[in-house]
Amino acid sequence: MEHKWILAIDAGAYEVKGRTRDQVFKFRSTVGPYRHLHLVNGEANQMEAGDYIVEYEDEKLFLGNIAWRECHAIREPRDISKAHEETKIRVLVAVHQYGRIRGNCIVIGQPIRGMVDKDREMMEKMLKGTHTITVNNVRKTFFIDDVKVAPEGSGAYFSMEDRPDDIANIIDAGSSTFNYLRVEDGYFIDRKSGTLAFGAETHMDITEKQMAEAILAEIRGKWDLFDPTYLCGGIAEYLYPYIKRHFKNIELIKPVLYRANGTKVYSPQYANAFGYYSMGKVVFADE
Q: Of 146, 157, 172, which is closest to residue 6 (Cα–Cα)?
């Protein structure tokens, strides 16, 4: 029986966050066309940690910090769906860096409003199968056995060790979308969940206070503001002081990694990745 290797990937528009059995990782999501650089930084090297030169099919690209610094034409789609080529590049680089040659099984997030059959099937189709990609001059061919697409926010719910048995409200504050998820008795409640089509990076002139007010306006009437509510995502810790003024029973989700040499608590931006990993252990054969 082939060994399964689970990669949980939260492919955000600002950063890719991920988890495997052995590692927790993140890198900048920015993608742009490669070009020759005439200037170097530090010890005559143009590359730093988080810089990737990617060659895939007929394209050569920058990914990560170097793309943000040097690309004129950044490819950063910020629509509701992640069923696009930029997501594919980000995931394949993650598999190249943290996956195996065979047995790769991926759980990846998709905004709640993007959870339609067409987009989910497109994401599965574009990622499954054999891929050959070169990252920083290292060429690898690997196989992705299976892909599961999960609604954003659901990972955060499953990352909580002591999640409520009855009601839990999740607010996932991301760079391009805000997702809010209602859980009742273990069931996701669609009519009380959704996606706001803005985030920390889409409207730079919006303050954290204004974001909190926009979330409140969307959720008021759907949730009881005294219900247990949990906040995660890339800007969760910045948003928390403002949003707790309205939600009387809210706390940050900080996932915990247990190892033989002790435990490590991670920031709320990793909550979905941790939960996707837990989901992967259930839906795929455990590692």
A: 146
